[in-house]
Specification:
Layout lengths: L2 H7 L2 E2 L9 H11 L8 E5 L7 E5 L4 E6 L12 H11 L9 E5 L9 E5 L19 H16 L17 H15 L7 H12 L8 E3 L8 E3 L6 E4 L6 E3 L1 H9 L17 H4 L4 H12 L7 H25 L7 H6 L1 H15 L1
Antiparallel strand pairs: 1-2, 2-3, 3-4, 4-6, 5-6, 7-10, 8-9
Helix pairs in contact: 4-9, 5-10, 6-10, 6-12, 7-10, 10-12
Amino acid sequence: MSALNEAANAGTTAVREAHRFDEAALTRWMLANIEGFRGPLRVEQFKGGQSNPTYELSTPTQNYVLRRKPPGPVLRGAHAVEREARVLQALGPLGFPVPLVLGLCTNDTVIGTWFYVMQLVEGRIFWDATFPQLSNAERPAYFEAMNTTLARLHGIDYAALGLSEYGRPGNYFARQIARWSEQYQQDADAGRDEGMDRLIDWLGANIPSNDETSLVHGDFRCDNLIFHPREPRVLAVLDWELSTLGHPLADFAYHAMMYRMPPQIVAGLAGADLARLHIPSETEYLQQYCRHTGRSGIADYEFYITFNFFRLAAIFHGIKGRVVRGTAASAHARERAESFPTLVQLACQSMAARS
């Protein structure tokens, strides 16, 4: 990702006009609900984050993060901040790297939408998948840390955490293809695309027969991770909006999609000289995951990649619709929306490789 794109994502800015709220009302809620909270409160908005507006809350003694549903009408089932809070609260006691949730508000009258407040985790976020801040000798350990963290998530006993109802076990791809197809087809503001229509038909007809269920993150990328300031260790996995009970190989393939992703869209490695940078190849990275999860290999890998490019294209199609409606959470949402055709093309290329 270019320095320009990193500047567009990293850090905070003044709260955008469409995402302002009653800060005095939030202060009153935090005094009543967040242990140890003391004002005065200063609110800024994180530049990154496409879907749920995210804010840094600063006080003289402690800083927090607030995630909320976007204002205005939202698609059914989208922007479920209460689900994010629930999975964070379940994973934290295991020692899995997530921020500590301090409070959840399901009362629209406080700031206009539901929201939750969590701790601010200090560390490093790498917005560029080549990890340019690191030396060649350091990079392999950071890729290993990402791989290990995702494999660990997929091995968690979700039923023991009380998450048996967090999604519907089994038949994951049929349900996901139907969900994202419907979301794409319903968003008339963003229009239709011939490639997306072909992908919908092909994916539905080529679902692999193997069926597994685990807790999945849904958006596991390097820029959704906070690393230790000096060590190759993940301190927090962020942005759980798309988490559910799903197929672990779909979740891994979404993460591994970085190898084919143009860096100007999201953190990707397409075009990078992996050998020179001492970054494991896509095949090597897949083999790492198999070692961590006790697999001999991943059949139908190209299907999983195709599915994930399609799903991301559907998400960007939704961003395009929000841009048209004027409710997009991110200042650079328009650039994301313009990348929608490229994602469709990449999905179609993977489809052709699998056919």
